[in-house]
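One-letter codes give the sequence; backbone shape is given numerically. An example follows:

. . .
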Amino acid sequence: MKINLILLLLSFIYLLFINVNKSQLIEITTSNTLSLSIENPNYSKNFISSYLNYCLIEYKILVFNNGGYGSYLLDFKTTTSNIPALLKSSNDNSTYLYSYNIQVQMDTSLIINLTLTSNNLVQTIYQLNQTCNNVLKENKLVELDVAPLVLLNNGFFSLFPVKEEDNDLFLAIASQGDIAYTGFKNYFFMVWGADSTNQGKSLTDKWNRLFSFTNGKTLRITSRSYWDYFQENQLPNQPSEISFYPSGLNSSNPMFTDFGNYNAPIIKVKIETEIMKPYFYLCYNSACTSPALFKPTNGTKGNMTYVSYMFNQFTEDYHNYSLSIANKYSITNSIIKTKFKNNPIPLFSITFNNTSPFKFTTTLYSFNLRSLIIGWPFGFLSGNNLNHTRSFTFQKYIDSIEKTNFYFMTPYLNDGQTFIIDSNNENIVNNPPQMVSYKFIKVQGFVFILSIDFTSINGIQYFAIDSSVLKSLDNLVKGNIYKGTFEIIIDETFENIKLVDTLNIESLYKLGDIISFNPILKFENPLLLKSLDHTYFEDVWFSTNELDLIDKDNYIIAYINSSKIPQDLLLSSYILDVIPNNIIVINPIIYNSTLGLFTSKFIVKKNNVFDEIFFCFQHSLTGFFLNNKPNSKQLMVNSTVLDSEGPIFSKVETIGNEIILDLNTVNIGVVGWNFTITDYLNGFDHGYIKVMGSLDSSTFNFNFTSNDFISGNKFEGVYQLLIPVSAPCSSQKYQIVYVELYDTNQILSKFELYRGYSPLINPFMYLYENSEDGGYSLMTMVSILCPSFPEDPSKPILLSFTSSKSIIDVGLIDRSITFTFEITPSQSGIRKDQSPIIYMTSKRLESFECVSKLIGGSSTYANYTCTTQLPLGFGYPGDIILSVYGIINNGGHYHGFSTVDLLSTSSKGYIGTSLTVDQPILTSNLNYYSDDKELIILGRSLSNINQVLIKDVDTESIIQKLGIESISFYGSSGIKISGIIPIDKLFNVLVLSNSTIESNKLRVSPVYFNLTPSNIVPPIVSPTPTPTPSTPIPTNPPQPCPGKPMCGGEKQGYCSTEGTGCICISPWIGLDCNSKVIIVPPPSINNTDPSVVIPIDDNGSTTSSGGGNNEIPKVFYKSIISLVSIREIDFNEQQVTNHIFDKWIYTPITAELKSQYTTSILNTNITATLEWFNSSTVIEFANQNLTMNPSTIKYTIEINGEYKFTNALNQLQLIMLASFESSKTNEICSNKQFGNTSTGDNSNFLKIQIDNHSLYGRFIKRAIIDGEYRGVSNKLLDSSLNSITNSASSIQTYIAITVPQFKNQIIIDPDFSVLLDFNDASSDSTSICNNSSSNGLSTSQLVGIIIGSVAFLLLIIISITYTIFKNRKQKKFIDSVNLKLKQTKQ
């Protein structure tokens, strides 16, 4: 229906009401100019469930105005109190987008009138009937027939399918968070709580969970108990040992004081169990709704150790805890009664003067979605930890359209204050940035690139993904901040993106939103599937299922067989085990075209858990699916000794505690600690300890490795940490505030003095004491006692502050900058062992540090300098403000200089920024395994790269040089490098643009992956080993379906739904399915060269070599396909050498149907085997099925031997001549075409046509080269080689097939068919014609021959010649053609 004025389209955001909540739209008024329709979207995750007594529905309404110039929508009203909100409109008033929300009571209908009024007062009224139905009408029982699963540290859950009719019900419950939709069709995920698993009853009792709805109906879900799936002898025994840290926690009068802050008391349980996850519940008072976080730390199958902690309480009352541990006989309940005395962080208000002691906490600074968490000395202007002054300087939005809320707080304590920063917005126009267009580019696994073209009146400042993940403009790849393109590398799903300009004006785009009109463009990610049916995974198996993890990693490949999953789907995998320490490693799932399977590599770390390790898929939004099919083989760990505890301090001794320093003695001694670190199985690897002074916050950082022990070994060793002390000084304590210890499996044990949650593994946890501070001061503090020395609060004087650059280009490789400043120290002098820090802070609240060093000075003068390399894009657009903090004197005070201080001394307090966008920068690489031949590099401005250099880290020598043919591009921000020699040690990568502009060096650290070849072969039956592709096989791009009717009509072909073009129905063939296979007798065997003679007359039949005059056709045609030569070309495609074929040796194989020809050039032998097919046959070549039509000649060509290339960058090029001539010269036309086929065989085609006859060739884009599938390219060379002059009755062309270098062998397998064509050459406007009549058309019957399918490396000599004809004129024609064939070989 043609729309003349206004069209209203409504799209439901909450589509999951389908079959539950329905709407109906009725036109009330009749108008020839107005119409309205409802458009249903495909997906929404925001289903409003029937837990409420009403439905909330949001419509997006599009209004189109086609009234022309001066016409606009005047009013849009409804009969509800809610008014449609205008979201955006086009500049010409032709399109409007509204949002409209309604609320409908449960089990009722609501009738709404929608009235549109144009400025000429024409109205259209529609009636919208909306229903809201409860998803549960009757009480329902759902019995799960799948075994419950258990995630270590996360309790029990079920992953289960539901019936199709129950899908809406469970989607409704999922919207409330009680269960989760997996993203796999009809599959849901539910966690079982303590109340559902019958705590305190028999282990084998059924589990129940009840859901109640507002209409009084209930849904009950039941399942067999987790324990009911085991034998009785497998169930755990009673605990053999329960230990508490500190040891008196379970005494009659317990008291626990935090070890530091929020480091909770520890419980350790030893139990004999053959099940990895026994049943633990640790409950506070009567509340017991979730399992305890009991982490398996040590042991073997049958004898395990688990650790958990007790949640801290902020009152000093007694609290009861119950510890429940399941065993084969009963559930043991132990009551633990303890009293907590907290040692919390002293609260302080963010003011410039602070008298509350500073306890080494970090501070969160935040405004307008930007935040910065940073610790001492940032902002500490003067004073000491007992009494200090803070001063901060931040940039604010002077011209912001809104006031800025600026607040400071200690993370997790919410102890700060909020400040309102006024803004001058009188002259500000709200003109937000605009997304013009976008594109999603898949990289690998779940990594993709979002490319966005934008415009912004005020200039883009930054953008945010899901309003929280802020991205700077280092992603700007084209243009500038006012009009350009940025590319965002994303490795997770997202729902919206926000563009924010320099005035803090923003635009929010959600997936599914309309971003532009005329035509309508929605913001959608085509790489994501909204739902994936788990049955698409037809089979899943692993290179090995039985794992031995005793002191060795296992390297696994998962194989997934699926004929329904799109090969370009964003898909990844991960495993759930203990060792990653709650960090899930995502592995890409990649389609392997050689195997016809999806594959995913992953590593199971040594000394892991026993029993099953879950393998999971991830796709689309949050979808996942565990491979837990009953009949599928799982990853099973049978041999292991668990060690997931991490390194632990078993003993801590202080050194020099309470040392007394003499004022007249310098460098009198040291203080510190001896730490005994134990990790009996994996062994300690490396660690970091931070120590700070209690008075002046002087800081000491210690990094050490397992080689630094003073006694012992990596399994139990003593490590020493020493701090030199001297006078003059101030008495204070040096205390440990932060510890990280890693074992050889990279398992972390961590201590942080002040934090918002208790760590499960703490290196001090077995050393907790029943003391006033939990034993913290006994182990983590050493005191120094200094002689009486007056405090020195005097502030140093800033003499100068300079930077090496006033403007820095943060888009170049060299982003270095040097700062120098001079001060007059305080009276007591400066601490020379402490380094002031220069802070660089951007408008977006980014912060970057440059640690200075003392380069000269005396008691009255100090000179500092520092040099650093800024992050890519840091601070752009805008200025970077500077400040200096952390100058500590000997009198126990610290000082600093804010930005205002720097500016007040006539120093430069800021630096400007610029951004070059065309400099290639390498930023990171995706996971690279040591046996990989492909490497994906991410960065910026990579679209013009034409060379890659791989260099040795130590010697800088070039390991490998790769050209443009080895590079695949992902926009401007990613490249894939193919053909890499596998490397198992560190190496550097740099790239060149236009062979002159170099990038930075990127260091690549390969992940060692050792999978023996015997394990790689998947468990499938294969008669012969299948080669693997070393380079991507070329594929044809999408193409339209030509013809009228399309594809020749329904009896001849149809248009592919995959966009490849026409799919023809046998015997039809060709781009438009207007060529037909014809049957001819086998040709006579040529015993000279691999040529075929097929006489064809203008009726489409073969011509015999004898007979009367009646057998001589009026017109006949002759085609020649001849292999001219093989030539070597350089990287510029210039000829180096040329080898012409002249002699062949013929060898018969079978009569009529098969023969063989051989020739040689230099040390290379060429063999061509010809085989004739009388009937349709499917053959396989290079992992591709090809159909041999009746009357098809198939060529199998092999090139054997080592061809000596003159240069490593050179390639071979096969030159072929194809010609077609007719004995008719008047009223005739000819033309030629070259392009991509549409049959899905990823080939090129050549069609040369005279009148209504044609010669058709197919050139496949693949070959088998040295046992691997490799891509080849095909092109016409008429413009570069000497060509025969084309005419209306004679046409020819040269074709080149370019192949990469090889070592030993090339195999190709082309074929040729005889076809009947029904298109006249005169119908093509590019034809060459010789017309003697007015209409210029041939009067012959439309008949043609198409001799088809020429592929790959060698297209063999085919000479279709006539043998003997009685007509002298025809004989003369044949002789002339044969002469031209001879000339091409000279």
Summary: The chain has a mean pLDDT of 75. The radius of gyration is 39 Å. The CA atoms of residues 5 and 501 lie 36 Å apart. The chain has five helices and 107 strands.
